[in-house]
Amino acid sequence: MGYKITFDADKCVGCGQCVDICPVSVWEMDGDKSNPVNEEECLGCDSCTGVCEHDAITIEED
């Protein structure tokens, strides 16, 4: 079982909180936005969705 990350770059303000909180380094900063670069590592813990105040991230079971 894996997880599907949906990321809306238009909603991202580049705060980097998702990068800082992810326990498995799914997220990296790409310029002034975060970017899911290791989606296959996602644990589905929802830490990133919890800190994203702009609802730019959604995680669903794949």
Structure description:
This protein has helices at 17-21, 47-51; strands at 3-7, 27-30, 33-36, 57-61. The chain has 62 residues and is α+β, with helices and mostly antiparallel strands. It has a single domain, classed as Alpha-Beta Plaits (2-Layer Sandwich). Strands 1-4 form a two-stranded antiparallel sheet. A hairpin with a 2-residue loop joins strand 2 (27-30) and strand 3. The longest helix has 5 residues, at 17-21. The mean pLDDT is 97.
Helix proportion range:
10-25%
What's the main sheet like? 2 strands, antiparallel
The domain count comes to 1
Roughly what fraction of the amino acids lie in strands? 25-35%
Low-confidence stretches: none
CATH class: Alpha Beta
Instruction: Give the helix tally.
Output: 2
Structure classification: alpha+beta
Under CATH, the topology is which?
A: Alpha-Beta Plaits
Radius of gyration over alpha carbons? 10 Å
- What is the number of beta strands? 4
Name the CATH architecture. 2-Layer Sandwich
Cα(first) to Cα(last) distance is 6 Å
Inertia-based shape: globular
What does this entry show, briefly?
This protein is an alpha+beta fold and 62 residues long. 16% of the residues lie in helices and 29% in strands.
In terms of topology, how is this protein built?
Layout: E1 3-7, H1 17-21, E2 27-30, E3 33-36, H2 47-51, E4 57-61
Antiparallel strand pairs: 1-4, 2-3
Task: Jot down its keywords.
globular, 62 residues, two-stranded antiparallel ribbon, Alpha-Beta Plaits, two-stranded antiparallel sheet, alpha+beta
